[in-house]
Amino acid sequence: MIQLVEKDENTTRTYVQQLKQRCDEKDRKVDAIVADILENVRNNGDKAVAEYTLKFDGSIPEQVEITKEQMKELTKQCDAYFLEALERAAKNIHEFHSRQKQQSWLDTKDNGVILGQRVRGLAKVGIYVPGGTAAYPSSVLMNAIPAKIAGVQEIVMVTPPGKDGKPNPDIMAAALVAGVDRVFLVGGAQAVAALAYGTETMPKVDKIVGPGNIFVALAKKAVYGHVSIDSIAGPSEIMVLADETANPRFVAADLLSQAEHDEMASAILVTTSRDLAEQVSKEVEGFVAQLSRKEIIQKSLDNYGYILVAESMDEAIATVNEIASEHLELVTKNPFETMTKIRNAGAIFVGEYSSEPLGDYFAGPNHVLPTNGTAKFFSPLSVDDFIKKSSIISYSREALEPIYKDIVQFAECEQLTAHANSIRVRFED
């Protein structure tokens, strides 16, 4: 069950270390398997992909690429209310991410200097969407909509087939709503390899984004540099910062919303109230007994579930900033004031009615977030992840002449005489 401890100066350090190490041993074991898969797909293309699909997913789809017409037909199997909710969520996600779009710009001066920046969407992006036993249509929206806004020319989606070899209708519906261009029923490390290297039927992309299991995460890590990626996603995390004003039932429910994802998911409450800590612990026990994924939740809480009781709010906030959780809920008397002191978190949920699943599905901000402490230096997935920038430099002779000796001086200081010469020759008598 979730562990309740009094926070001291070593608690945070120990817990941070524990979180960062939770994947290391498993990663090392899986790395070798992933390397073999990548090499096989790189050398043998579609044949290797089909072999791994049969091995890991149970069957080979009759048709690997799903057409738009087939997607529309599959959508007829979806719940009508779900389709309406899908459209409403997509609208919110589009509105939020539209504000992130950058524009190209040029700055001109009278002496003939033109400087600027050109912003362009990537040519081809691959998005990975978990499927099979766990289908996440929300991930389709969160990955594809920002790419579309950025101006990506072609969005290629990969998702595992079900055990029957067929696509998940809800994921197909989300792909249509989000504007995905091509869909392939391929999952796992073999899908990442196919997107990174290309096969006879699957195109090579410029960037791969989207969450997946450890095989997907390590495959993305391995192909980084050959293609770009968004991030190396670790197990899901939630942290709640609360004081005595928080509703213990709400807090407990929110902690479990992430614990059910994975046995390695972490759920942490940091509070200044011992009474709240004890109430939350009791509520957690009651909820776990009722929930469908209680075995996963229980293992998650046993390993990575903590209630940390801090002596002061300043101490609690310092703990929050050090752990740098993927999801952070602020349930305090003045949550917006508390928010001003938060430096590190993937997404910040402010107030008792801003539950984490709101961000997962509907509010609009992206749910692809930095994990494992990387919120100290990484940001949520955004439109910026799907663009590239080019600098523009144009000088006239009039503009270059007064400063060319400065450039020559830099080049000669670095002993790059060819650099110096390429400037000097323009002003030979």
What does this structure look like?
- The protein contains 18 helices and 15 strands.
- The termini are far apart.
- It has helices at about 10-20, 25-45, 45-55, 70-75, 80-100, 135-150, 170-180, 190-195, 215-225, 250-260, 275-290, 295-305, 315-325, 335-340, 355-360, 395-400, 405-415, 415-425; strands spanning about 5, 65, 105-110, 115-120, 125-130, 155-160, 180-185, 205-210, 230, 235-240, 265-270, 305-310, 325-330, 345-350, 385-395.
- It is of the alpha/beta class and about 425 residues long.
- It folds into three domains: about 5-25 and about 235-365, Rossmann fold, CATH 3.40.50.1980; about 25-230, Nitrogenase molybdenum iron protein domain (Rossmann fold), CATH 3.40.50; about 395-425, no CATH class.
- β6, α7 and β7 form a beta-alpha-beta unit.
- Helices cover about 45% and strands about 15% of the residues.
- The strands form three sheets. A six-stranded parallel beta sheet has the order 1-12-11-10-13-14, with helices on both faces. Strands 2-7-6-5-8-9 form a six-stranded mixed beta sheet, sandwiched between helices. The protein has a three-stranded antiparallel beta sheet with strand order 3-4-15, with no helix packed on it.
- The longest helix has 21 residues, at about 25-45.
- State the domain count: 3
Helix content: 40-55%
Q: Give a quick account of the main beta sheet: strands, pairing sense, barrel closure.
A: 6 strands, parallel
* Shape call: globular
Write the layout of secondary structure elements.
Elements: E1 3-6, H1 11-21, H2 24-44, H3 46-57, E2 65-66, H4 68-75, H5 80-98, E3 105-108, E4 114-121, E5 124-128, H6 137-150, E6 154-158, H7 169-178, E7 182-184, H8 188-197, E8 207-209, H9 214-223, E9 228-229, E10 237-242, H10 248-259, E11 266-271, H11 274-290, H12 294-304, E12 305-309, H13 313-323, E13 327-331, H14 335-339, E14 347-350, H15 356-361, E15 387-394, H16 397-400, H17 404-413, H18 417-424
Parallel strand pairs: 1-12, 5-6, 5-8, 6-7, 8-9, 10-11, 10-13, 11-12, 13-14
Antiparallel strand pairs: 2-7, 3-4, 4-15
